[in-house]
Amino acid sequence: MSESTAASEVGRDVVVVGAGIIGAMTALHLQRLGRQVLLVDRDEPGRGCSYGNGGAISPDLCVPISLPGMLKRVPGWFRDPLGPLVVRWQTLPASLPWLIRWVRAGRMDRVLQLAEALRALHGPSLARYERLLAADASLIERTGQLYVWRSNAAGPTEALARELRERNGVETRALDAAAIRAMDPALAPGFTRGLFFPDNGHTVNPLRLVETLVKHFVAAGGSVRRDKLQAFERADGRVRRLVMESGAHLDPASVVLAAGMDGKALARHLGDRVPLQAERGYHVMLPNPGVRPAVKISNRDHMFGMTPMEHGVRISGTVEITTPDAPVNEQRAWGLLELAQRMYPQLNGEGATIWMGCRPSTPDSLPIIGVARQAANVVYAFGHGHSGLTGAPMTAELVAHWLGLAVAPVDAAPYRPDRF
Ligand SMILES: Cc1cc2nc3c(=O)[nH]c(=O)nc-3n(C[C@H](O)[C@H](O)[C@H](O)COP(=O)(O)OP(=O)(O)OC[C@H]3O[C@@H](n4cnc5c(N)ncnc54)[C@H](O)[C@@H]3O)c2cc1C
Predict the structure, then answer these.
(1) CA pair distance 128, 130, nearest whole angstrom
(2) Per CATH, the architecture of 3-50+208-275+365-419 is what?
(3) Nearest CA to ligand 1 atom 52
């Protein structure tokens, strides 16, 4: 990058680092509030975790991942390398402090607070996407989501999940076997219980969604730069300069760090230790599935989902607690295909491709949105774990609040980095 190009970007008010769903949404929102924004990513937009997610946009989502009684389940996390949640022994020392915090976040009093904060963040998401993407309406489907179980007996956390949904005003409809079949006739028999979320939806292509946001941003005068943020230069409690891998220097008034999993290392450079753990997940993409779920569906016995997308059917899920760079376990992905074929016996696996991505997860399931402790002009916006696609619209609005550009749409305190 030549000095002159770098200099032309110095005049931007805000640099957003990371062009995943969080950074793209934030850049567009800040631009609409009148800021000059530069969106920077080391890769093409949308190629991080936002590339391969399940596409669910879930306003209902208010049940934290850690719930009371987690400790009893710990032995199971190590037993089956292909189970829905696995902790890898090899990387346990690196994950242990986070796991301890995770189990502690499952205290009942804390869970009630977290549920409220999750619902506040997620509740308006689908409506916000629909408004923003009115011209690209085909990207979003508001067809609801369906949870199904083969097992008749309710699992240990189901009663609590129901209570949290009720407390937070989530509408659900319980379905019996006949109602499930009526909703999705291609589904194999044997699913005895279902729960339908009428107010949820999904995107038919998570990558195209990010690319579309970036397209609107660029069309309105925003700049995108492919470069990696390497270091910060600080003075007087502010970041004065971003040092990029290309050798360029950027000197914006404010910086938003929306770098997903890499937020942890970048925050560390600024003196903040944030507990962020890679909860790795996998997907299988079926280009010629032969049969499609009627709506976005989740198999709650095996904890994975299937989404009808514009380029096929996506099977996604599983949690693997390990370091981001640990070797990929392809068996985890192919295991998802096997389970999905038991749900839809006609499902065609030909041409399937697999993918692994790192959910950037905090122990309490809430993202980290707020000002860096030692750099007053840096706002963090990462750590969205299982629900970044859903949390993106409100995250962008909370970032605007922390930059002093707008009133916070909800109480901003629960997501602050200094809660840890
Ligand atoms: C299998 C799976 C299924 C999921 N399903 C869903 C779902 O159905 N619904 C839902 O809401 N969520 C889902 N999620 C979670 C969701 O995908 C994530 O929460 C979300 O993508 C996080 O977005 P992000 O923008 O923070 O991170 P990312 O998409 O990872 O973006 C971060 C970007 O920062 C860039 N970057 C990092 N460091 C630097 C640097 N130093 N300089 C420049 N650029 C940098 C990266 O290249 C990357 O593009 C799922 C996740 C997985 C793994």
Answers:
(1) 5
(2) 3-Layer(bba) Sandwich (3.50)
(3) 53
